[in-house]
Each structure stands twice: as C-alpha cells, then as structure tokens.
From TrEMBL:
Keywords: Hydrolase, Metal-binding, Metalloprotease, Protease, Zinc. Pfam families: Prok-JAB (PF14464). This is M67 family metallopeptidase. InterPro entries: JAB_dom_prok, JAMM/MPN+_dom, MPN, VirAsm_ModProt. Residues 82-95 have a biased composition (Basic and acidic residues). Residues 75-95 are annotated as: Disordered. One of its GO terms (molecular function) is metalloexopeptidase activity. It comes from the Bacteria. GO terms for biological process: proteolysis. It comes from Aminipila butyrica. SUPFAM superfamilies: JAB1/MPN domain. The keyword Protease applies. The lineage of its organism: Bacteria, Bacillati, Bacillota, Clostridia, Peptostreptococcales.
C-alpha cells in the first residue's frame, strides 16, 4: 500500500495541469514499513522527451533526487508520471520500461481534468498489479 500525503498529491496534480499537454514525471521518496510505503517527498523532474505520449527523466536530475533522499534518510519508492490523454493504467511502453519490480509506478490520468485519477502499480515482467493508495 502507498500512503500519500494529500498535499503531495496536490503538487503532482498541479504539475500535471501546468505541464499539459506533455506528460510530467518525477521520483517519489519515503520510508518502507513492511508492505506500507509512505511518500515523504516528490521530485518533479523534466520530461526531456517533451512528449504527450511518453517520458524520459534526466539521469543527472535522477541522481540529484536520490542523493537528496539519502541526505534526508529516505529511500527511493518509485516514480510517477501523468497521462494527459489516456487512462491511469500502464501503457505497453510503461510495462516494457519498468526496470524495478520493487518500485511503485504512480500514473495520474488527467484526460478528464475535472476528474483526475491517480493509481499505483507494481510491474514485473510486463505484468502490472495495482496497489492501494491511502491519502493521509
């Protein structure tokens, strides 16, 4: 289960709206307690592809985010990105590029901007399994 502070969800949503029509992306850092992952920080990173259909994060920016997590005693939990024109589910490309079966992949659909949908997934061998999100 993912525990996500409402204010961090708000930051993701605002970034997705501002970045629309491109996908926005970033990393999430926090703490793990058994099967519970509590998000403490989000790191909005530039989508260097500047695309509405996929994203790539700068390796340098990713490294800086991970260094910041370590300084704060946090661990990388996964990443997030928006889907401006599609539902909140992993695309075939998302599944193919999912490199870490322990990571949480959060996808925020804003195809209906009035009713955004955030879902979390674990992806292993191109098979996705939805994780519950608890807003705190």
């Amino acid at each position: 289960m993912i525990r996500l502070p409402k204010h961090l969800y708000g930051e993701m949503l605002e970034a997705a709206k501002v970045g629309n029509p491109e996908e926005i992306c970033g990393l999430i850092g926090g703490i793990k307690e058994g099967d519970i992952r509590e998000v403490k920080e989000i790191y909005l990173l530039e989508n260097i592809d500047h695309s509405k259909e996929h994203f790539s994060m700068s390796p340098k920016d990713q490294l800086e985010a991970v260094k910041d997590m370590r300084r704060k005693g946090l661990v990388p939990l996964g990443n997030f990105h928006s889907h401006p024109e599609s539902p909140s589910r992993p695309s075939e490309e998302d599944k193919r590029l999912a490199y870490d079966k322990e990571a949480s992949y959060l996808i925020l659909s804003i195809m209906n901007i009035e009713e955004p949908v955030l879902k979390a997934f674990r992806i292993s061998e191109q098979v996705s399994r939805e994780e519950k999100i608890e807003y705190i």
